[in-house]
Amino acid sequence: MTDDPDTERSGGRGLRARVLRAETSLAVLAVLAILYTAFLAQNLVAPIVAAVVASFIFMPLMRAIPFRFLPDAASAAIIVALIVGALGGATWALAEPAAKWAGRIPAALEELQRRSSEISKPMEAMRKASKQVEEITNGGPEPQAVVMKEPGLIEQAMEAAGQKGASFLIFIVLLYFLLATGELLRDRIIRSAKRLTDKEKARRILRSMEREISTYLLSISLINAGLGLAIGTSLWAIGLPNAALWGVAAALLNFVPYAGAAAGMILTGFVGFIVFDDLGQALMAPAIYFFWNLIESQFVTPSILGRRHTLNAAVVFLSIVFWGWMWGVIGAVLAVPILVMMNTCFAQIEGLRKFSIFIDGRPLPGQDPTGSNLPE
Fold first, then answer.
1. Burial class (CB in 10 A: 0-12, 13-18, 19+), 309
2. How does residue 169 score in pLDDT terms, banded at 50, 70 and 90?
3. What's the pTM?
4. How far apart are alpha carbons 98 and 103 in whole angstroms?
């Protein structure tokens, strides 16, 4: 065995490098395992995450008048009852017009096919001719394939309704317990830290997450409500039936950045095509939708939220794509709140602050909003 100090230092550095690589590999595998579990158990994990996000929104309300004078269990019960009542009332008011429009979809598709027959007929003739040529080339028609019978539409709808109903029940019950025991849970998390500095850091992270999430989502909710009111009123002014339904749909769709606006324009364009015979009048509905979304996204939201809640647009898009792929619509809705929580948490932890730089959309110190260097 050598006593050379350089050799010992070299061996120590090599050992530390191997340990670091092993820890990094284990961390990556743990993250992948968690994401895979979240994907498989989305009907369980997604409502849990939604309840946690909602608890950050309503926790400041628990400390407001008159709830601060009530027991936490009673305040949580009142808030959850108001949420369920509001959702139930909105569903009851909009269920009938939504069902009527859903019943008109088959006839609307037939009308759409009839109006586009001038384009579809030549394409259909080309398709048939191509199929005939292929059959002649292959020596006759292809053998019929055996198709397994899929479950009926009613069975699929009932299964989906049962899963979503169970997820909603998990969300509501967990939200109640998080609100009722929120302060106790927060105190337990802080007490679990060993050092005083860690306790202060945990308290600061929890307060920051609550403040950022509640401020962001409350502001976005008010903005989306105003957007829905503006779109609904404008669609009513041009004579589109059930304008209130499309206004509510616009407010809900706008919780999903980018994709929500595109889906709303397609939806109102389809409805306008059904209702109006004139093409120009039919195009007014998506044009109105685009106009109000442009006003909201370029002027209203930046002026209200400012740079405090600015996120990197590319990271927001990737987050929506990823969580939408993981959990569907609910994942796309939760994508931005999850990103805000991650950014807030990363910004408070020294070792993870570098990741917050990539999520945050604010200009770095020494740069103007366009990204160019400011003069010293």
1. buried
2. very high
3. 0.72
4. 9
CB atoms within 10 A of CB 69: 8
Region of 139 on the Ramachandran plot (φ > 0 left; ψ -120 to 50 alpha; else beta): left
Report the distance separating Cα 245 and Cα 94, nearest Å.
Answer: 6
Query: Quick one: tokens of 96?
Result: 């009938």
Residues 273-330: pLDDT tens digits?
A: 888 878 888 889 999 999 999 999 888 888 777 655 677 788 888 888 898 888 888 8
